[in-house]
Amino acid sequence: MPKLTFLGHSGFLVEGSKGRLVIDPFLTGNPLATAKPDDIEVDYIILTHGHGDHLGDTVEIALKNDATVIAPNELAHYCNGKGTKFHPMSIGGAYTFPFGRVKFTIAHHSSSTPDGVYAGQPAGVLINMDQKVLHHAGDTGLFMDMKLIGEMNQIDVSLLPIGDNFTMGINDAVKAAQFLKPELVVPIHYKTFDVIDVEPAEFAEKAHAQGIQVKVMDIGETISY
Ligand code: NI
Ligand code: MN
């Protein structure tokens, strides 16, 4: 069973039998994060988009670990320009890496780097590792095609933003969970900043009322899925 550790905001460490990776490692400058970039030992970094609260410490972690950055095309090239190994992908495409299979999905958002470089399309990501499917929605509003993603993938864990303002809020995230039909939802992208200060317990309550299983993870907490 793969292990999933919440790093805060949208960041997760994922450990499977064939490799370790980190998604959206925003640690430095994240007021709630407890891990430091030096703590992260991985082979791969997956990025949903270029915003600072997702790109985060990617370049430092990638260089220290000789890790490969898997990201939407322009963002992967941006990281490569900073010296990292890279694997560019685009929405709708999948590729089998040593640790498992990665597919990028659409996200309704924007994507540029903190220094103002256009970073291509923002994305969500499906990671098939050890016969388990992890879905990270990235930053996105609710969209109807989540229903198609749910129909075509037996999702074990879906990581869904609930913080509102920049992404889905609580009610839209409950609808997203109904479309995606995962075994478990973990809410993300809340409380880090004042404008996304929503209560995950309210999301859990509303989702439970629709028969959806929710795990509100503490920062630093690890679950198996
Ligand atoms: Ni964003
Ligand atoms: Mn964000």
Question: What would the keywords be for this entry?
Answer:
225 residues, alpha/beta, Metallo-beta-lactamase, Chain A, seven-stranded mixed β-sheet, six-stranded mixed β-sheet, 6 helices, 13 strands, 29% strand, globular, binds nickel (II) ion, binds manganese (II) ion
Descriptive overview:
The mean pLDDT is 98. Strand 11, helix 5 and strand 12 form a beta-alpha-beta unit. This protein starts with a strand and ends with a strand. The chain is globular and about 50 Å long. It has helices at residues 52-55, 58-65, 73-81, 146-152, 170-180, 200-208; strands spanning 3-8, 11-16, 19-23, 44-46, 68-72, 85-89, 94-97, 100-106, 123-129, 132-136, 157-161, 184-188, 222-224. It has 225 residues and is of the alpha/beta class.
Structural category is alpha/beta
CATH architecture: 4-Layer Sandwich
How many helices? 6
Number of beta-strand segments: 13
Mean pLDDT: 98
SSE string, helices as H and strands as E: EEEEHHEHEEEEEHEHEHE
- What name goes with the CATH superfamily? Ribonuclease Z/Hydroxyacylglutathione hydrolase-like
Low-confidence stretches: none
Name of the CATH first level: Alpha Beta
**Cα-to-Cα separation, first versus last residue:** 6 Å
Widest β-sheet, arrangement of strands: 6-5-4-3-2-1-13
- Which percent bin holds the helix content? 10-25%
Number of domains: 1
Shape: globular
What's the short version?
The chain is of the alpha/beta class and 225 residues long. It is built from six helices and 13 strands.
Chain-wise SSE layout:
Blueprint: E1 3-8, E2 11-16, E3 19-23, E4 44-46, H1 52-55, H2 58-65, E5 68-72, H3 73-81, E6 85-89, E7 94-97, E8 100-106, E9 123-129, E10 132-136, H4 146-152, E11 157-161, H5 170-180, E12 184-188, H6 200-208, E13 222-224
Parallel strand pairs: 3-4, 4-5, 5-6, 10-11, 11-12
Antiparallel strand pairs: 1-2, 1-13, 2-3, 7-8, 8-9, 9-10
Helix pairs in contact: 4-5, 5-6
Bound molecules: nickel (II) ion (NI) and manganese (II) ion (MN).
